[in-house]
């Protein structure tokens, strides 16, 4: 692993250590930070896929208000994503191991009220991904591919949680098991793995979409996960910084940002 990535992961771990040392956190602070990150995660993940709701519009939709001029699908994409986050939080809290059933359940929530026939169902046709250098496997191979993903997940040698989350995300996206909603589902799986390890969610911003797609493409083609790991680590660090700033812990002893090294 390049020294730059090693240093970034060390910075992330220092931030997590500072945050963990401050636990238990004030309940109202935890609730407000969770709401903030859930909103930003929902907004950016949907925006990456073309949803045109603004951050503020996403907020009011999640509060139950209809936004004029926006499609019903865009409204459902916001509320569905929120519900999928709640489900991920639930399985993380129960310390459940990742399974195909959970992946299907996450996807079913992502497509709820949008495409009932495909929600939680592996695709029954072949697809190509515009702009990608790899072609997803034949739909007939999906059961074996997904079983292989769970097998890899269960047998992977110990690795940094951010690396593991980035690789899980990439492997899932490469399989592309569903007709629609793979990106959102993949980012939910990414954060399932991070949250399970005690990290805040990585929010990949819509303005980083090109770098994100390039990093994913590189990893899918060459199995070089350096770029996608770095992008995920930077996203986790931003979420950690949000916590540390609110708690006044950004400059806690032992916490050194990578640009201060």
UniProtKB/TrEMBL annotation:
Nucleotide-binding is among the record's keywords: yes
A Pfam family recorded for this sequence: Fic
Keywords assigned by UniProt, alphabetized: ATP-binding, Nucleotide-binding
Limits of the Fido domain: 98-234
Active-site positions on this chain: 176
Domain of life: Bacteria
Protein name: Fic/DOC family protein
One MF term in the entry's GO annotations: ATP binding
Organism, scientific name: Paraburkholderia sartisoli
UniProt feature coiled coil, ranges: none
UniProt: ATP binding residues: 180-187, 212-213
UniProt site positions, description: Important for autoinhibition of adenylyltransferase activity: 49
Lineage: Bacteria, Pseudomonadati, Pseudomonadota, Betaproteobacteria, Burkholderiales
InterPro entries named among the record's database cross-references: Fido, Fido-like_dom_sf, Fido_containing
């Amino acid at each position: 692993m390049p020294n730059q990535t090693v240093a970034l992961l060390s910075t992330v771990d220092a931030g997590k250590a500072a945050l963990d040392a401050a636990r238990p956190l004030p309940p109202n602070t935890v609730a407000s930070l969770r709401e903030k990150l859930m909103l930003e995660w929902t907004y950016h993940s949907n925006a990456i896929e073309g949803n045109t709701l603004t951050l503020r519009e996403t907020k009011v939709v999640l509060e139950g208000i209809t936004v004029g001029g926006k499609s019903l699908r865009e409204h459902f994409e916001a509320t569905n994503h929120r519900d999928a986050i709640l489900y991920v939080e639930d399985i993380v809290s129960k310390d459940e191991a990742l399974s195909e059933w959970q992946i299907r359940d996450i996807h079913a929530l992502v497509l709820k009220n949008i495409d009932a026939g495909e929600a939680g169902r592996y695709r029954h046709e072949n697809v190509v991904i515009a702009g990608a250098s790899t072609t997803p496997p034949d739909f007939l191979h999906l059961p074996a591919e997904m079983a292989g993903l769970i097998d890899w997940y269960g047998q992977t040698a110990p690795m940094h949680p951010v690396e593991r989350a980035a690789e899980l995300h990439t492997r899932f996206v490469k399989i592309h098991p569903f007709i629609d909603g793979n990106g959102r589902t993949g980012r939910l799986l990414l954060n399932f793995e991070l949250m399970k390890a005690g990290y805040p969610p990585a929010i990949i911003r819509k303005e980083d979409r090109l770098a994100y797609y390039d990093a994913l493409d590189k990893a899918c083609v060459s199995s070089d996960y350096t770029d996608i790991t770095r992008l995920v680590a930077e996203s986790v660090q931003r979420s950690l910084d949000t916590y540390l700033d609110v708690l006044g812990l950004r400059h806690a002893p032992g916490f050194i940002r990578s640009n201060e090294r």
